[in-house]
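dumping the sequnces here before i forget
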Amino acid sequence: MSVPTCQVAVLGAGIVGAACARALAQADFQVVIIDPNPIGSGATAAGMGHILLIDDSPAQFALTQNSRQQWNDLAPELPDDCEFVKCGTLWLAADEDELDEVRRKEERFRAAGVAAEVLDTRQLAAAEPNLRAGLLGAFFIPDDRVIYPPCAARWMIEEAQRHGTQLRTGVSAIEVTGKEVRLSDGSRISVEFTVHATGCGTAKMLPGVPIRPRKGHLIITDRYPGFVRHALLELGYIKKAHGTDTDSVSCVVHPRRTGQVLVGSSRQFDAESKDVDPRMLARVVARATEFLPGLTRLSGIRAWTGFRAATPDGLPLIGPYPELPGLYLATGHEGHGITTSLGTAELIVDHLTGRTPRLPLEPYLPARFSGVPAHA
Amino acid sequence: MTPERQFDVLVVGAGPAGLAAACCAAESGRRVGVVDDNPDLGGQIWRGERVHPHHKEAGAWLQRVRTASLDFLPGMQVIGQNGPGRLLAETADGACELRFERLILAPGARERFLPFPGWTLPGVLGAGGLQAMVKGGLPIEGRRVVVAGSGPLLLAVAAYLRTRGAKASLIAEQAAWSALLPFGLALLRTQPDKTRQALALRWALRGVPYRTDCWPMRADGDGKLASVTLTNGRRTWSVPCDYLACGFGLVPNLELPLLMGCDVRAGFVAVDEMQQTSVNGVYGAGEVTGIGGLDKSLTEGQIAGYAATGQPAKARRLVAARKRSQRFAATLNTAFALRDELRHVAAPDTLVCRCEDVSYDRVRRHESWRAAKLQTRCGMGPCQGRVCGAATEFLFGWPTTSVRPPIYPTALANFLESPANPASLA
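..and the predicted 3d for all of it:
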């Protein structure tokens, strides 16, 4: 029996897998995408869909800049249902420490030549009338956007399909052995390369990959156009989100193009159940309400949870998996996979073609962790 | 702090199943509460019976409720779980936590609405919905009404509307006469009471054409309903009307059972001999375990009420009666099974989800309810898929397997443990 041949198998039809498939197909690779579930139905569906710059490390800043630029270049091509809206980001400063962080951000952005501005109390109140009085200011990043990720993933896969990519949903990859992927329906695909883009699923299939699921809670409201105008994040987010294992919540509130308000978010390690935890949801709503007191009156129509694929240093794992030649990782994006999917895809193509990369490869290599076996 | 109420047995739903469950549970002397979003007892079928009694059996049960020792919590909508043994409910004054040892779920059913061109025109309504609106004061006298869809409910609605002065022009039943005949014969043979009821209904509807093998193809009108086009599969014709009341059978309200983690099989909550669901201490009764009407609901409710309060002997005495009512339900469901043609009435641009304006053509491209929801927002609006989910279950065979809280939209204040907004405190 002949085994069908494909140059690259992309495992995972989430936003990262979709972006990798599109970029590989455009680079003339013959690609097959494999996912047991519908397109974009994992962390891609659960996330908020914020396309933003993150400057908490040089590597993250470089990756998010590259990715955001790619997203913004795509704006004219993206179909309407992707709900791609240039709303900008406001990082909210509630105290002097956070205002200091605003100033540090301003320096970093200026040094990188990226558009941003500092808003004082009055300017912030004018920009977002529903914020509570007394906030000290905000860091405004005008070119950040929000998007509806499941449709963006579908569009990328359609783009890849126009370049000959095959999509196989409803089957999962059971085993990747060198040049072959064995599927749950008993079939096999012969491949040159495999790209693992399964988020938290990667750790299950490849023991030793340092990914921990980090649960998040979100709730979305009915339609209240104009209630918030920008993607709002408290600067306390930075202090809480990294370097701690304890449960935390922070205020993250987005306007959707539909007029709905998306409210988050929480971070929890070691929470296995995907059920909404009423206590955690109460904390999320309470924290957001501290910034937007009028939120309490809005009607909430749906709450859900999702699992981010978190790595120890907050940077994704992009590049060869040293133990198995031909296997590449594109995972571990924690809360930023929607943004960095495009930069990740570019890096994967860099690795597979050996072309000169625009981004440094090293900061994202899986081999930077001792848990990942080094090259023999 | 959110106010709270503590019960040994909490019953969700004050229709026949819930009331029967509550009465039987209360016989044990335990503390029993019944919560319902309506301001009055009776559910959909016995709505208004307390004030305007029509139904003998309803009167007897409502009398029993009055003398039983139980707390009725009206106007309270259960919106979700609040941890194990706790439900979160919304009242006019804000959130309330309901604590329980045992829970009996009797949330009933709602009408299934199927999309056809023009179904979103003003004047096209659910059959039960129109009935409720008329009970609520909508003037109907002299208005021409066509009642279409399937099931015994169509007759009851038409008869009611007629008593309120409506001109019932036609009752269009999609089921075939050949399918209804065995049901009618079974009714005559085994259910003399129901036969009497059916004959009384028919008498109330004398002069109103009842057409079987007949279903709506299209509703027309300029800004509001003017006529409905019907078909019998061979020819089509139009009937002018002011209202078109449609109902294509009933679908169970599975939101709360699913949220509690109860197993659902073939579209209904799975229960054991004692009406217990797959979740220990959580029982299901009435339409959520299978569409079957009044007798089944009352019997299952009683069994659940006894079983949840350590009275298994009393519960077992009702098992034979339950079997009879389930057999009747099976005959009913076979007779009124929806015909395949109804899957093909919608046009490509007919809306399936009117909350999010999603057309039939956009929905049908997807392989599952989950994929359709994610890619088109079908079912993601404020009705949370109650209308389009029931439609797509029939149209495409997509079962509802999961639900997200809250099960009804509610102010964000109601999610807070200590509501910051004074308006949300009782």
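Chain B has three domains: 4-109+251-333, 113-248, 340-396.
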